[in-house]
Amino acid sequence: MSRLRTLLEWTRSVVHVLCGGDRRRTVLLMWRRPRGLFQPYGTTQENRYPGLFRLLRQGLDDVPQTRVLSFGCSTGEEVFSLARYFQLARIHGVDVDANRIGACMRRWRREGHDPRLSFACAGDVSQEVAGSYDLVVAMSVFRHGALSRTPINCSTWIRFADFDRAIDDLARVLKPGGLLVILHSNFRFGDTGTASQFDCVRLRSVQISPIYGCDDRLIPGMPGDDGVYRKRQAPTA
Ligand SMILES: C[S@@+](CC[C@H](N)C(=O)[O-])C[C@H]1O[C@@H](n2cnc3c(N)ncnc32)[C@H](O)[C@@H]1O
């Protein structure tokens, strides 16, 4: 039975590769499995989170010095949408998949090379300068589609230790007072070592993602803590 399932999954993957599009990108990414990969699927859409985008715009100045990072930007819809809410800020999109970043760049060229927008292919933000962003969004990144079947342990797909490291790095690039947005995560921000540097601005009330603990084990019935968090100002001496 499990051999049949493997054969079916393999056949489906080959069909997806042949068909092209984002399914092809996803299969290639899963085969390659770069270090630190979370959600391999590139599902996204234009103006995907309008209520949240409005809230973020109200909470942040929109001036040329404002810097926004979209971590896991897929094919760029999130970056181009944020650019309509923030008309002056600079917005940088990062994604681990070079094909998706290629799609971002093609759209960027087609739509007139907006100098406020930039993109980079990377699986982390180690190349970004510490304390340089006012807003970091990581939406639908710290999860994996396979976990919707609620396996008892998530470590075959994603690991809490990688999440903890990634959050620590995202916190590093945020300015004191800057905002971090985590959405649709299979882990809890509050379980990370970095969470104590943040205050919760807004918790998301409805959540359907299964939650996994620091030991990568499913915690049945555990609500997530997706939301908007503000990095505390450094204490004054
Ligand atoms: C479901 S898409 C989310 C797109 C967008 N943020 C949204 O919410 O519409 C997840 C994206 O995260 C990217 N991703 C997964 N792990 C990553 C990592 N370690 N670093 C950067 N991007 C990553 C995937 O390549 C994929 O494009």
Can you offer a commentary on this structure?
- The protein is of the alpha/beta class and 237 residues long.
- It is built from six helices and seven strands, in the order αααβαβαββαβββ.
- The protein has helices at 2-19, 21-32, 50-59, 77-85, 98-110, 160-173, and strands at residues 67-71, 90-95, 117-121, 133-139, 174-183, 198-203, 227-231.
- The protein has a seven-stranded mixed β-sheet.
- The protein is globular and about 60 Å long.
- The structure holds S-adenosylmethionine.
- Residues 36-39, 41-44, 48, 71-74, 78, 94-97, 100, 123, 139-141 line the site of S-adenosylmethionine (SAM).
What is shown here, in short?
By secondary structure, the protein is α/β, with parallel strands linked by helices. It has six helices and seven strands, in the order H-H-H-E-H-E-H-E-E-H-E-E-E. The protein has two domains: 1-32, no CATH class; 46-231, Vaccinia Virus protein VP39 (Rossmann fold), CATH 3.40.50.150.
Which labels suit this protein?
seven-stranded mixed beta sheet; binds S-adenosylmethionine; 7 strands; 6 helices; 2 domains; Rossmann fold; 237 residues; alpha/beta
Low-confidence stretches: none
Largest sheet strand order: 3-2-1-4-5-7-6
CATH architecture of the largest domain: 3-Layer(aba) Sandwich
How would a crystallographer describe the biggest sheet?
Answer: 7 strands, mixed
Strand content: 15-25%
Could you give the topology of this structure?
Blueprint: H1 2-19, H2 21-32, H3 50-59, E1 67-71, H4 77-85, E2 90-95, H5 98-110, E3 117-121, E4 133-139, H6 160-173, E5 174-183, E6 198-203, E7 227-231
Parallel strand pairs: 1-2, 1-4, 2-3, 4-5
Antiparallel strand pairs: 5-7, 6-7
Helix pairs in contact: 1-2
